């Protein structure tokens, strides 16, 4: 074999080995647990009724939204696919505990009480505001300003807890409590506002832009951002291997630029974890 041909063969072999080693280093720590790897997918519990975070795309009839894209990228980083089981928000953690899914991704706030049951991998900072119908001129500076009003919200959410706390302060001040209309999904709660069955809706600030894009002039933001919270993907304490794999995959998403790409795609740039 001529020296030039031999040199070329050796060179190509070295390049191939280097590529394999580079890929191995890049994916170090992003290995799916054996159970996940064997079935080829991660099943997430998700309330598919809180657009633009998660929803059923009316054109494809498939899960869609910011969380769905994050889940897909997390799974891809582990060499598997992602699937979603539609669960009402207040049933997410019970469903996880019952073994109905492997993890939760559903705009779930990382709260102390929840950390007693699950581990979180934080992936966004969400701001929340009060929304009214577009024709309203009402403006609110705090939840205590909602005395005597009907306020819709997703049941079992951190936001519902905050409304209950505000109601206690309203009552202590000798004012009429608000009526909290807590429904099974964020979409149902939002529709209460649209249908005129609630005066105000408390939800993610970015929802105003999303719903107005679907139907211009539908709602308006009627308060500053009142509540800011960190949201994360949740796994049971016993599933440390899966938790670590999700965390490693998310870190890889940040390093590769995939995380920023998904944020940009949904107009969620301001929600980035720092």
Write a structural description.
- With 274 residues, this protein is α/β, with parallel strands linked by helices.
- The chain has two domains: 164 residues, D-Maltodextrin-Binding Protein, domain 2 (3-Layer(aba) Sandwich); 102 residues, Periplasmic binding protein-like II (D-Maltodextrin-Binding Protein, domain 2).
- Helix content is 40%, strand content 23%.
- It contains ten helices and eleven strands.
- The strands form three sheets. Strands 6, 7, 8, 9, 10 and 11 form a six-stranded mixed β-sheet that branches. The protein has a three-stranded parallel β-sheet with strand order 4-1-5.
- A hairpin with a 6-residue loop joins β2 and β3.
- α3 crosses α9 and α3 packs antiparallel against α10.
């Amino acid at each position: 074999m001529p020296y030039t041909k031999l040199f070329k063969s050796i060179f190509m072999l070295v390049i191939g080995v280097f590529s394999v080693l580079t890929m191995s280093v890049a994916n170090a720590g992003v290995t799916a647990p054996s159970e996940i790897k064997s079935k080829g997918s991660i099943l997430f519990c998700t309330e598919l009724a809180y657009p633009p975070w998660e929803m059923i795309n009316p054109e494809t009839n498939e899960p869609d939204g910011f969380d769905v894209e994050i889940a897909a990228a997390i799974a891809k980083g582990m060499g598997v696919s992602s699937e979603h089981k539609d669960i009402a928000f207040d049933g997410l953690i019970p469903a996880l505990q019952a073994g109905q899914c492997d993890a939760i991704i559903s705009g779930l706030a990382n709260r102390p009480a929840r950390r007693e049951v699950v581990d979180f991998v934080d992936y966004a900072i969400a701001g929340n505001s009060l929304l009214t119908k577009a024709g309203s001129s009402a403006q609110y500076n705090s939840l205590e300003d909602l005395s005597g009003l009907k306020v819709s919200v997703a049941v079992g959410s951190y936001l519902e807890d905050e409304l209950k706390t505000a109601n206690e302060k309203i009552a202590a001040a000798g004012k009429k409590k608000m009526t909290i209309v807590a429904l099974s999904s964020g979409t149902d709660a939002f529709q209460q506002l649209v249908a005129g069955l609630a005066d105000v809706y408390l939800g993610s600030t970015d929802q105003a832009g999303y719903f107005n894009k679907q139907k211009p002039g539908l709602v308006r933001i009627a308060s500053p951002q009142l509540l800011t919270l960190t949201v994360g993907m949740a796994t049971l304490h016993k599933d440390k291997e899966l938790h670590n794999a999700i965390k490693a995959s998310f870190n890889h998403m940040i390093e590769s630029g995939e995380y920023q790409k998904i944020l940009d795609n949904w107009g969620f740039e301001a929600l980035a974890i720092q």
